[in-house]
Amino acid sequence: MHKLLSEQRGKKMLLLGNEAIARGAVEAGLAIGATYPGTPSSEISAAFFEISRESDLYFEYSTNEKVALEVAAAAANSGVRSMAIMKHVGLNVAADALMTLAYVGVKAGMVILTADDPFMFSSQNEQDNRYYGKLSGLPVLEPSSVEEAKEMIKHAFDLSEKLQEPVLFRTTTRINHSTGIVTLGDIAPVKTTGDFVKDPFSYVTVPAVSRNLHVKLLKHWDEAKGLSEGSSYNFTEGNGPCGIVCNGVSYNYVSDAVKDLQCEDKVKILRVGFSNPMPEAVVKSFLKGCEKVLVVEEGEPFMEEAVKAFAQEEGITIPIKGKGPGQFSRLYEFDPAMVRRVLADYLNVAYEPAGVVDVSDLPEIPQRPPNLCAGCSHRATFYIAKQAAAGMETIFPTDIGCYTLGVLPPLSTADFLICMGSSVTTSCGFSKATKKKVISFIGDSTFFHSGIPGLINAVFNNHNFTLFILDNGTTAMTGHQPNPGVEMERLGLSGYGRIAIEDVVRAVGVKEVTVIQPFKVKKSIEAVKKAFEYQGVSVVISKEMCTLYAKQLKLQRGQRYRVTDKCKNHRDCINQLGCPAFYLRDGKVQINPMQCTGCAVCAQICPENAILPIKD
Amino acid sequence: MASSVLGEAALLSDIPVRMSEIHGMAQRGGVVESAMVFGDARSTVISDGEADVLVGFEPSETLRALRKCNKDTVVVTNLEPSPPFTVAIGKGKYPDLDELQKLIRAKTARLIAIDAVKLAREAGNELSVNMVLLGALIQTGKLPIKAETVKEAIRSKTKQAFVESNIKAFELGFSAAQTERN
Ligand code: SF4
């Protein structure tokens, strides 16, 4: 049985934040879940995917976040509890659905999990998704710890049912990827099927209907305000004259700092866990007892602005600080020492910072940036593209996935990236606005996610570029989740469809379609050269399974290779491929047999034919 | 793996524990940093200069993480280098191991530097490097967790086939740290 399905009420378990969230949803009787994978939320979905094979939970990897949110929205409007899980930028993709779903509302509890990523450990921006609560008029809940996350997610379903609105559950990486001790509760029975009762004047958002629905949303907003006021997730601690308003992980740093600085008697803390709508009356009465207030929150001054507005309404003129020089930044994530330092200053107490060892005299430590795996098919495709484009002036729009690592030398095949699917669409713009050859890269999962509309646009508007679709048979970057092109039978799963990328590309009208096997280097270069010559939209589908995935599936790998003494040390292999299986010993290139996967790409490009298979 | 065993051992000993992990694309060769906080602190992150113990699985990475230490920190490190790819393409020089140890020793309370790969091999499983280092970590006495409890956690957390070699590796690490002291 899956560990998160344990019926042992009261049992203590060490769980990752994401596992605790999944468990909380299971305890709440979640019936339908949908996601598009994205760090730092991915383990929630991974857990649901596994659990769904052993329980009544229906879970799907949807093609993108908008799809996931809409699947969940229909379920919740049919009376079954649902959840859509995504990373923060995923909510941008789903925002169109979100805004009007708020008008329509839900019947059964629906939770939208948005995992924000301050510091951008694995994201392209660090936007603060609490603002989606404000923009849509939906409630936002934010836990401070792993154990609280489990309880709060259950409350989120109840809250959603009470308000008849979806609830945004906002985490940050340090909740998702922290581990803590969680106490298991009872698992509620799952209501797997409901019914949808026709009522077009509530559900079909034509203008005349939406005008009424907006009135309803504002009524729900007022109700949400009342619930936020009384919420046990908005609580105060202490009775001192200096107010501190905090949320999420900042609350932990504040609590620890107050203890370390031994200034419990100086502060009064308001921890906000139900942060949209902000609990107005709670904040106002909190302000009245304070001489000054400091707002501690990662990201944007979301609470700070609200607190200042409330103070203005009450005519309270005490200093209210938060973001600004000497206080907190809108950039990156916080840490305990940073919060302690600012707090010591704010409270005017002595503080001896930790004596960090002097690192100024350490020798330079070589960087260890992430790199495409040894034997990764993307490396071969990038090499092929560059060889075929030799002599051309190029622009390489890229997309989101492992292949974004092509940005690093020696591959250097990434020139522009903003979001999922942007490789195809920015290629349209670059090819119109410049005279350079535009060559772009998109992965299979990203192609299904949001590449297809761009490709249709390119065909319709007759743009001129070559798109590589890197089909490695999985969603590699986020941990090898399925996508619509994946052979699910390999995972022992039946009952799925399978979409061939080539069929899609031809069906949308691309005339020049080439399929290559990137480990056949010469043949591929010739084929790609032809694709590059084509005037109009040409697509190259580069098909080879992700080697890490192949290893997980225990598929046989090829013979390993070694560098023989025919090597004349040109180092074309290292300098052009940059495969991490290479290393230098006494100035000579060697291949680490533990890392070599036998893709044989280096063997094909060595001008001396010095790289040969190891004979067992 | 080492942190999940240690977390489990803390759970068995009724000691509050929190951890957080940042995997800088670990599987693609990036750096993984785990923080473990024992006791009743709420934070799951350790700021620079505030670690009581630092365990490094690779010597140059131990050096890179030295900013987490203060003069009272105890450092445990594996001595077997795994040079990053940047060294192979000439974009960096791997630090000298003797100098590295000298520097860490001079700046911290104690350095336990062991060839964990060799000991893991001796234990019969090259992949048990983490258990060797865990053994050395427990020997420092810096954590409120008994060796016996960790072994219990190893038994419950590892696949049957590896229990014996993992326990052996743990013990080898423990005694290697003891000898280092003398
Ligand atoms: S996980 Fe797969 S796709 Fe990603 S770098 Fe490794 S081999 Fe390439």
Q: What's the level 1 CATH class of chain B? A: Alpha Beta
Poorly predicted regions of chain B: none
Note the gap between the termini of chain A. 42 Å
Give the termini separation of chain B: 29 Å
Mean pLDDT of chain A: 96
Report the portion of residues of chain B in β strands. 15-25%
Could you characterize the architecture of this molecule?
The complex is a heterodimer of chains A (616) and B (182). Chain A has 616 residues and is of the alpha/beta class. Chain A is 38% helix and 18% strand. In chain A, the strands form six sheets. In chain A, strands 3-2-4-5-7-6-12 form a seven-stranded mixed β-sheet. In chain A, strands 9-11-10-13-14 form a five-stranded mixed β-sheet, with helices on both faces. In chain A, strands 15-16-17-19-18 form a five-stranded parallel β-sheet, sandwiched between helices. In chain A, helix 3 (65-76) packs parallel to helix 4 and helix 11 (280-288) crosses helix 12 (302-314). Chain B is α/β, with parallel strands linked by helices. Chain B has eight helices and five strands; from the N terminus they run αβββαβααβαααα. Chain B has helices spanning 2-12, 59-64, 85-88, 97-107, 116-122, 129-139, 147-157, 160-181; strands spanning 17-23, 32-38, 53-56, 74-78, 110-114. In chain B, the strands form two sheets. A three-stranded parallel β-sheet of chain B has the order 3-4-5, with helices on both faces. A two-stranded antiparallel ribbon of chain B has the order 1-2. In chain B, strand 1 (17-23) and strand 2 form a beta hairpin. The two termini of chain B are 29 Å apart. At the A-B interface, strand 8, helix 10, helix 13 and strand 21 of A face helix 1, strand 1, helix 2, helix 3 and helix 4 of B. Strand 8 (178-183) of chain A pairs antiparallel with strand 1 (17-23) of chain B. The structure holds iron/sulfur cluster. Residues 372-373, 376, 378, 402, 472, 476, 546-548 of chain A line the site of iron/sulfur cluster (SF4).
